[in-house]
Amino acid sequence: MNKIATFLVFVFMMCSSMFAQFKHVDDLLKAPLNDANILAGEYLRPYGEMLGVNLNSGWYNTAKVHKLGGFDLTLMGTFSTAPSSKGSFNSKPDGLSDTFVPQNSSSPTVAGSTSDVTKYSNQATGVSFEIKGGGGKNFITPMIQGAVGLPFHTEIMGRYMPKVEYGDLGKAYMYGFGLKHSLKDYIPFVKRTPFLQLSVLAAYTHFDGALSVSEPDYGSGEFTTQSNAFTSRLLIGVNVPVVSFYTGLGYGRATTNFGLDGNFKVGEAQELKVNPLGFEHEYSGFDMNAGMRVRIGILALHADYTIGDYTTITAGLGISFR
Q1: pTM value?
Q2: What distance in Å separates the CA atoms of residue 36 and residue 40, rounded to the nearest whole number?
Q3: Which of 66, 76, 77, 179 is most buried, with most CB under 10 Å away?
Q4: Strand 170-182 to strand 196-215: parallel, antiparallel, or no bridges (unpaired)?
Q5: 83-95 confidence digits (pLDDT tens)
Q6: What sign does the CA torsion over 10, 13, 16, 18 have?
C-alpha cells in the first residue's frame, strides 16, 4: 500500500513520513479478519484523531464579526503534532484472538518511530507479520476559507479543499461551513469597550477520500476515509490598529470511518473477502487556542496555537474587508 502513503503526502503536504510505513496495513491481512480490523484500527488511530483535530481547527482569526457585506478570503494551513503517547498501542487490545502472539507488549502506530517494530507469529504454522512505526507525528492540512457578514451581527463562513486527483491512485476533497455571532451588544461592559470583542462560533467540516489499492498478493480496491467534525467555541478578542489578539475555548467532536473496499485475500488460508476492513474512530474534547493577526490595509496575516490532546498551529494569509 505504498500508493496510499504517496497520495497522502500529495494531498496533505505532509511535513513528515507519517504514512511511509502505511503499506504494513496490508500485511495485517495475514491475520484472521476480526484481528486484522482491530490491529489496523489501533495502528491508524492517531491518523483518525489528528484528522478530526485538523478539521476543527483554524475556523477564525479574530473574535470580531464582519459588518454587513464585509468579507475575508484566506489561504491557510493547520499543522498538528501527535503526543508521544500516541506512538504505540497495547499489542493485545480487547477482542484480539490468540492466533498470533506478539513479541512485545506494545506495538507502534502510524505515528510511532520507524525503529519500533513488533512481530506477531502463529507458533503452530510459523506464519508471521510485522507492525512497524510510521515514523511521523506531524502533518499539514491546506485549505481555502472565507466569510461574509450578514444582518444581526452574524457572519457565515465556508472552507474548501478542491477535489484532488492523483493519477489513477485516488481522490480527496473537503468542505465545511459555520456561523459566528457577536455577543458584544448583549453585555454592557463589552459594548462600551470599543476594542473588546466577544462572539460564539459553531462549525462543521467534512472530508472524503478514496485511494486506489492494488496489491498482487492480496487483491485490489480502494481505501476510503470519511470524516465529519463539529466544533463550538467562545471567542474573546482585542482589536487595536494593525494588530489584534484572540483566544477561543471550546469543544470539538469528530468521527472518522476507514474502509478497505474491494476483493482481498484474508487469513492464512487466503480466503477471498469483500470489503474486509472497516472501522471507526471517534474523538472529542475541549481545547483552547491563542493567536494574533496583523492587518495592513485589506491584507491580513495570522497565526495561532491550540492546546489539546494534539497541539495545532494554524497560519494563513488573505484579504479582509470591514
Answers
A1: 0.87
A2: 6
A3: 66
A4: antiparallel
A5: 989 999 999 999 9
A6: negative
